[in-house]
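Chapter summary example.
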Amino acid sequence: MLVVWSTALVVPRSGGALAERRTKEHGPVAAEALQTPLFNPAATAQVAQFDDRHFCLVVDDALLNPDELVQFAAERRAEFNSVDFSHYPGIYRMAPAELSERLTDYFQLHARRRFDARRCVETICRYSLVTLPPQALHPIQWLCHRDDVGLDARLSMQASVLYLFHDPELGGTGFYVPTHSAAATGALFADARLASPSAFAARYGLSPGYMHESNAWFRRIGGIAAKWNRLIIYDGGMLHASDIAAPDRLSADPESGRLTLNGFFTCRRNLR
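The structure predicted for these 272 residues follows.
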């Protein structure tokens, strides 16, 4: 169910508190400056409510000039690298520092209060392209996932995805809940990280490929379709997966592939 939460959004200030990141996951943050206002004050914002607990914020026509972000990525396509710090099935490039700052400001002004999030203490922002064919996926990549694994219990993580492609067949994002106990689900994820594809498939009855529907271990509770210039924001602790039902359409070209701008916001939890 979609519920309108605002139709006139305030444009965030251009400054922000993000410091330059130099760890492997954060990468060297690019210093390129944005020349124009970023967010669209006439964007349409809604809440997609999946059940009593799970929801996703959906902002359509989010940016004023989304083509500029695609052009930026296309001009730097040689700077995209394989992801070796997580199980993301593709390539990435860190976003410019100012873009990260503006996205953080937008999150704090328009989304943070809807989550268990008090103050944003860290943001990671990067361009991403899903590129791996199904036969190249490791078992952990056959499954939905959470973004907040290993996070300090005093912190929460929210995530955002900005779709920067026109072809909806490249896929949006699906959301899931486990159908087994926490112990059994934990064992599934542990084996998915270590087992060979054949051993994992035989043990759990799962087939190789991208997850885009319910299976014996997870129930799909909803999904957000991909749409040009659509921004979604959700709890990083909610299980989710890219809805890639047509992997033959994937490409490493930012101008034709499944280009997204991904944000991860680590926040202090609300005081109890």
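To summarize the output: The radius of gyration is 18 Å.
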